[in-house]
TrEMBL record:
Chain residue ranges for the region called Disordered: 63-107
PANTHER family linked: DEHYDROGENASES, SHORT CHAIN (PTHR24321), ESTRADIOL 17-BETA-DEHYDROGENASE 8-RELATED (PTHR24321:SF8)
Keywords, alphabetical: Oxidoreductase
Compositional bias (Basic and acidic residues): 98-107
Keyword Oxidoreductase: yes
CDD domains to which the protein is assigned, alphabetical: SDR_c
InterPro entries with a match to the protein in the record: NAD(P)-bd_dom_sf, SDR_fam
Gene3D superfamilies assigned: NAD(P)-binding Rossmann-like Domain (3.40.50.720)
Upper classification of the organism: Eukaryota, Metazoa, Ecdysozoa, Arthropoda, Chelicerata
Compositional bias annotation for Basic residues: 78-97
Family, as annotated: Belongs to the short-chain dehydrogenases/reductases (SDR) family.
GO-annotated molecular function: oxidoreductase activity
UniProt protein name: Putative mitochondrial/plastidial beta-ketoacyl-acp reductase
Coiled-coil blocks: none
Length: 107
């Protein structure tokens, strides 16, 4: 990747991995594979090394469970009635994060 030195304020690239990418999750096989954290982090580090002299910051975040339409399930994705309850019990955080809360942490 060839970039010239920028005169504008620093820019950044933010990749989003997922804790679901650390292991398999029932009913989320495609999502888990696409968010595999070691591959996303390796990609991020490679890009960071390529653009470091251009003043561009490159990072990855793994926000954990986030309350989104995908995690609420849809009629097309059958889920056991107690799946979300079991998952929430395993988590250390008690409050579901919303996408807007994660967005604020990246400013």
């Amino acid at each position: 990747m060839m970039l010239r030195k920028r005169t504008r304020p620093a820019e950044s690239i933010l990749n989003i991995a997922s804790v679901s990418g650390r292991g398999g999750r029932r009913y989320l096989s495609a999502y888990s594979a696409s968010k595999r954290d070691d591959r996303t982090i390796a990609f991020t580090k490679s890009v960071a090394l390529e653009v470091v002299r251009s003043g561009i910051r490159v990072n990855t975040i793994l926000p954990g469970f986030t309350d989104t339409p995908m995690t609420q399930g849809t009629p097309k994705q059958p889920r056991p009635k107690n799946q979300n309850k079991k998952f929430k019990r395993k988590r250390k955080l008690t409050k579901n994060k919303k996408g807007t809360e994660i967005r604020r942490t990246t400013d």
